DNA sequence: TGCCCCACGC
DNA sequence: GACGTACGTGGGGCAC
């Protein structure tokens, strides 16, 4: 039985990590980002590969034997930044703690050490895995040698075997050096044949297999220019080949035996991690778990009866529910924590206790909770109205930093250094294994959370204050969560019969289309599988493959649309996709979540998720019900009022983001456009194309609309070029023209980016915050994405703030004016209500007033409305 | 179970 | 030059 050997290209991985991660340093001011990235990769490798032999190879310094061949080898390369060089000794210390061998050899590169050991090991029958970021290493791939190259970041890798190499690059491992010989490598200053890139090189190698064959039969090369270039640069090509060939007989002063690896002492690594400030990695150290962390001690009192003295003015309240969906899952426990202690009850106990119910309904008794909406709705289902919820740890944590993806009590506690509290997953299990534990375990866990919540509250309060987010928290998100809870609890009536009829009709049509597709294809296959569809279209039917994905041919709609004229099957597939989507997601999916008892759908709005401040919606997602295509739009016919004589009423902001942009930038022209009530896309078109508004045709308006869309969503020139189907250059000219026409917008964007760079975050009108750690990244792509986010988030986030405030104001007005109308849904810039038909006129006035004046911007906010017997008819 | 591809909304 | 590109949710296929 062979061994399992892992060889790591130390320089390459450290380099990758350094450029992929922001320039972190620890509390001693020592840079650690490369070490950190390297370590995450290392931990992943140890987990995935469980090697019994291991080595990290490093480059040995400036010159190598290759410089004798070619003095300019690696010339012109940027000097290693000192911030990175200083991390190598740290990294080697850490490897020592892991008890992983590392090695370097004078005059040789890490590649050569790896090549030499890999060849020796595979001859011995070992399984070898090579980890690097350098494609040169691919020449080592064989039946026993797998090469894993970092792709994006450090832990995301592509795995290469002979088969996958052939598939991805269309060549054999042995041809890699020939490939490089022809195309060269600018990063190592390897010349290759000038004018020959990867595409040409692959083509040539497909024809000739090797460099020798190519030069023996140069006449067979098609293209005069190419022939000349090859002829003239023969020497360079052969020298390049020599340079990129990895030495497999390097004079190593070590043997394979020396690489044997048998794990590490957890304590040694832990110590290093603590020195480096890698607290988030501590939990990934094996043995770490066994080392019992001292749990927070909690004295949970389980009482027969609930008495007044347990129910104080300020009490942390935990309602424990095992499943995500609180509309359907039962309450497992109710736990209180306050100055009198921690008390646990069953749901039956609280439902029967008049004392508890009176306390719950008393708004002067302040309850602090985690996830107020969940808590209130769950109680409501049990017939217990809950008032006086004044602090939600979830919402507070979200406002303080929306980028954090886990705001639950154990996670927040961990971040504040309190590790003595296990996560829900650790206590209840996950997936199929999740279940209710023994009563005492359940109560103890909920008790710990209640106790921690009580402590966390003041910490979060401080952070809100520091960020000037108290108003946002207490007067926006907290009141809103109550309203959202009511909307969810109310639910939306669904006409299931209608959905079923639509489903039957679709089924028939899908079957017919399916038949026709099979006829066109000449065989039956799974149309829903891109993996099967790709070869049918691009091999069997010989259609041109315009785009590829990581795993094969792209069959995305935008690709297929370009092929529409080439073959009749294309339109059939597009239609099949369109109808199939309606069937699976919107007909079957919706029917699945209609509540048995109420005949309604009860979505859950996630108020603590998006990075911009928008809501999201799940089970079902009511924010992506089709509207664009008529066929899909009919799904909306199944959303109906819950009572006879009522109608669905929809009200949406017109161009809210662009109005926000006008306000925030102060651009006079943009402001005037809105004041004058102009058609904004036509106006933009006339500006961008330099014509009068009357001269703007439909296509110009369409393009201008995409530009406005791009401005609002912060897409790049590339994104705009994709949506317009023009070149990137053309897209960029549109963007430039836009900024030239609206100079204050450009100024505002630049200011926002500058400020984000300085402060590390951007803010909305109501002080919602988003941190942008990549703002100063040296990685071009990351920095660019961060800059676009900086420009976009204040706009989208402010729009989100505004509609949230409108909802609060509207809820209040509906009560004041004694209207029965009820809010049902929010879809980012629109509100959907149900309302008795006789109230429509009154409601129209109120909704318009509230939504248009919930904030006063320098431009008017405009609201359109409509109503009808179904959501479809409210158009 | 987790990832990929695809598709729906704003 | 940078080769990947708003924010979300969900379904089906597929490899493990």
Automatic annotation (TrEMBL):
Residues 299-465 form the 3'-5' exonuclease domain. It is an enzyme of class 2 (transferase). Gene3D superfamilies: 3.30.70.370, 5' to 3' exonuclease, C-terminal subdomain, 5'-nuclease, Ribonuclease H-like superfamily/Ribonuclease H, Taq DNA Polymerase, Chain T, domain 4. Residues 3-262 form the 5'-3' exonuclease domain. One of its GO terms (biological process) is DNA-templated DNA replication. One of its GO terms (molecular function) is DNA binding. It catalyses: DNA(n) + a 2'-deoxyribonucleoside 5'-triphosphate = DNA(n+1) + diphosphate. It comes from the Bacteria. Residues 632-839 form the DNA-directed DNA polymerase family A palm domain. Its EC number is 2.7.7.7. Keywords: DNA damage, DNA repair, DNA replication, DNA-binding, DNA-directed DNA polymerase, Exonuclease, Hydrolase, Nuclease, Nucleotidyltransferase, Transferase. NCBIfam families: pola, PRK05755.1. Belongs to the DNA polymerase type-A family. Single-chain monomer with multiple functions. This is DNA polymerase I. It comes from Salimicrobium flavidum. The lineage of its organism: Bacteria, Bacillati, Bacillota, Bacilli, Bacillales.
